[in-house]
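4.2 Preliminary Data

To establish feasibility before requesting continued support, the project team ran the inverse folding procedure on a target of 276 residues. The structure was first converted into the token representation described in Section 3, and no sequence information of any kind was made available to the design step. The complete token record follows.
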């Protein structure tokens, strides 16, 4: 896989976005920074080649190569768009079940609005006659969360790893992600956590699922959560979320912010707020 540049989890997208550039006449692939606008154009306009099964998952997701000009990079393609009034899997039953490519696009756009740049870019385009989410394939992955837990490691900087895990928990509560599993948490070689595959997120529930897991929060992220409005979310996500789904995000945001404000009042800011 391509080399991925080291960067903290809450940084400008320019330092995290990479593209594979083919060296003319040499057939080699190296990585170089690619601004978000150029990455988006690449995903939207590039030619899709070598489509194959992505492996893992149950929604028929595919992996492919995209080429545009001198650039070539892998992408993840998901066209699933299922809505069921009742969905049962084993002992679990869910009402108003949705599994949709739309949520990968919404996840990227909302994460970007919040200054979270470890949800890979995802765009909407037609692939073989079907509307799909085409998502940047994460580079330089060393392991997934299952492997990290198996190795019982927190990496070279356990505090940074802990902060990233807390960010994931906040993010998954905000979007009410019902399908976070160890396979869609990726760790790159610089020990940055990437969160992928959000097709079963953005439920309509207003209550937090595991509020007891929300113990600490980055100061900047808390400020950006407070700044969210219905209008800013609607502008960011466009048609990738319905109004009811956007409203549910705001309702859960309110609960997250209130939880942390109450926790600060109870145990003090130093025990809750960190600067990441």
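Position-by-position output of the design step:
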């Amino acid at each position: 896989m391509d080399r991925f540049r080291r960067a903290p989890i809450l940084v400008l997208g320019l330092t995290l976005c990479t593209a594979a550039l083919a060296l003319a006449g040499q057939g080699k692939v190296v990585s170089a920074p690619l601004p978000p606008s150029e990455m988006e154009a690449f995903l939207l306009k590039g030619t899709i080649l070598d489509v194959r099964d992505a492996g893992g998952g149950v929604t028929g997701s595919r992996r492919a190569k995209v080429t545009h000009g001198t650039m070539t990079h892998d992408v993840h393609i998901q066209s699933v768009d299922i809505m069921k009034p009742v969905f049962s899997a084993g002992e679990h039953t869910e009402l108003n079940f949705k599994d949709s490519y739309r949520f990968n696009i919404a996840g990227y756009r909302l994460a970007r609005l919040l200054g979270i740049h470890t949800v890979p870019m995802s765009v909407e385009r037609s692939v073989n006659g079907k509307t799909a989410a085409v998502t940047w394939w994460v580079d330089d992955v060393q392991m997934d969360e299952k492997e990290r837990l198996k190795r019982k490691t927190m990496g070279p900087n356990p505090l940074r790893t802990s902060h990233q895990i807390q960010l994931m928990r906040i993010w998954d509560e905000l979007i009410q992600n019902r399908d976070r599993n160890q396979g869609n948490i990726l760790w790159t070689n610089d020990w940055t956590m990437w969160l992928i595959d959000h097709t079963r997120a953005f439920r309509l529930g207003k209550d937090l699922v595991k509020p007891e897991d929300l113990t600490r929060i980055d100061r900047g992220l808390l400020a950006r959560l407070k700044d969210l409005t219905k209008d800013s979310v609607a502008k960011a996500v466009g048609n990738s979320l319905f109004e009811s789904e956007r409203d549910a995000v705001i309702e859960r945001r309110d609960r997250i912010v209130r939880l942390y404000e109450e926790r600060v009042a109870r145990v003090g800011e130093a025990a809750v707020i960190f600067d990441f």
